Predict the 3D structure of the following.
Amino acid sequence: MGEWGKLRANITNMDCSSRQPLDKPFEREFKGIPEQDLELILKRAQEMLEDDWIKGYNYEIKDARGIGGQIYLDVKLTIVGACYGKPIKLYYALLWFPWKKYPGRDWAFRADANIELKAFNAIDYILNGLSSGSSTVLEFNIFIPPDIYPEERFLKPVVDLRVHYPEWIDYTLEAYPTHGPFEIQPYRSFNLTVTDYDGLNPISGARIVIRRLMHYYDVREYITPDNGTIRIYRLEEDDYEVRVYWNSSLFLQESSLVHIGHHTAYDLASEGIRTLLFNVEVRALDLSERPLNGVRIALDGVEAVAENGSTLYQLVPNGNHSLQAYWMGVKLLDEWIWVGYHPTISPEIKEPKLKLILPVDDLLVQAVDSGGSPLAVNFTVLDPRGVLPETRLYSSTGLLNITQIIVGDYHVHALNCSPVFRTCAEASGIFHPGKPSKLQLPLHSITLHIYSRNNVGLGNASVMLDGVKTRADRWGYVSFPGIPEGEYYVKIMWKGVEVYDGRITVSGPGSWNITADVYNIGIGLKTADGRPFPAFWILIDPSGHKHESGRQSDTIAIELVPRGSCSLIILDERNLTLLSWNTSIEKLAGMHVIELPVKDMVLRVFWSDGAPVFNARAVLIGPAGLKSEGLTDKQGMIVFSLMPFVNYSLKIYYPGATIPIFSGNVTFTGKPIEIEARLTGVAVKVVDVFGNPLPGASARLQVSGIILGERRSGHDGVIVFSGIPCLGAYQLEVWYGSLKASRVIHPGETAIIELGVINLLGLVLPLQDFIIIVSAFAAVTAIPAILRIIIKRIRASART
């Protein structure tokens, strides 16, 4: 182990892919074969049968004879079912061992072959004792690691074979076992390293004595070089006593024997030797267990300055050692320590890490006023022992922090001078490092709690106490530390607006509640009849900040608004201004409801005779594009929802028509609006050509295609249309039979319509018929004069 060697392996092609047919056995006759040769053949045949390379065999002795003590036989040998296989090409082989520390192919050895191997021939082997061309011997250069486990000396190697199958592909046959006896010789050659107890530092100049147990004459001695490593050659697998001798030139040492122990050869090859030489780590800490950077440590007189409180002494021998620690030039520790093994003090070797707690800590003094608030002061510190030089320093926070000084009594003086209040205060005392202390000066802390008028703390309010200006916290509290006794002016600003000014008297620590003129506004918006009304609103407060609703809301809710003048505008959903005020925040804060000039408009339309106008369309047009329309009900009423109190243009149309019966301006003040639609009448008298009344004539009155009425004349020929809307003009149409006449008539007018008929004693005749009758009568009676008169009248009537 631990050396290179050579290993030879016989590789045989054992392919058995086909067999000799059972009905065609192999037969061979031997003439005069010696008996001992036959026995060898039969032995090999039995071996092949047991390994299933053949299915059976038999032999028949036909003759036997002896010559000179030697028997010769005539024999017939029959072999049945012999195996045959295909040749295979072997490229190379990888040989490796299943060692635990060096597993698998990571520690493999290669041997190239590039040879074709015939398949193993069982018959050739039986007859001749070998199968020519089916095997090859490969030689591997191998290295046996020095530290394999002892029981692994008998582990057989396995091989991976890279081959080419005939008529197929290249392939790797993995982890093939090997057969036959195998053993690694029980010797180990290795490098042995001697180190300290931690295995970190090699030991140079050490004398090593290795003595084989039970064979004390077998002794080896070595001296370690600078790297602490020696070469051990072929150490037999056995148990050994090992001793290591070494002398320290720096530290106290009771004995030069730094190691004695029993080891196996495997232990030495795998682990090396660790001696009773230690790396001692010393950590120096103050009373708060913080490292003391720069502390001076002396171990057996060997001094070192600790970095970050730690120092390391290497190769310290087992035994008793002196230890001192110095801080600020003062020895704070002087004692003996034991390092390593001791049968009573330390029967189990402990890690040599020493933690030294030295009497060193921080001097912490907080300068405060009577309320416990910190003050900015000038400190003077005196050490009666003279170890710490006189120290003067200024602290804006009032905290004196002198870190890591030796515990003792220190005289501390604090002085506070205020340029604002033009006064000074001082105090002094004796203090000790290790715990925070307070030094109280004759000054006071006061607290102001700033409220709004709604008892809400004014967080971040600007507060001025005489010449000191600061801001309140998120809850409206503001503290002033270090205030001398006296009277002080207080001024409070909120969003750039002064909301309080007054005076307070300070005679000691205390707190004051101050109510500033800052308000919460919560106003409900309602219509003139008390219903909630969602609207848009804009309020510009005294600071100039603009507050907007963003969306319609029936409430104005604004928190923490400073006092002063403001402007408020309220708009409806059409961006129509409903209200515009210049007022004050104080007034708005006292209001709960604003009644807006908005209400449902009730419009009643009636005729001049008092009858309601049903189904009339009303169109209402207001400012900013406001437009509403609807139809009157049976009572002549229509309601327009939530209309502002403004002037409107109103048009009312005749029911079912586009004829306006009213057009004008109205002013909505919240009260119902009544509109009277005037009624009028027209009359028409229908007469014949002689001006006589014509009963039974029909007349129709209409406007723009809308029929206002139809009537028939009575015996007086008069038709009256009453109760009609008063319009500019009407279209009158009169007819009797097939005779028709039409004209324009105006309200209140009486029209006379003459039709081309003659009414004779209740008999109405068309004029043409009457002329024919009269002409016939004139011819008979020869009354031409009368006829001429009638004709003249008719012509005159026709001309008119």
In short: The first strand starts at residue 4 and ends at 12. The longest helix spans residues 35-50.
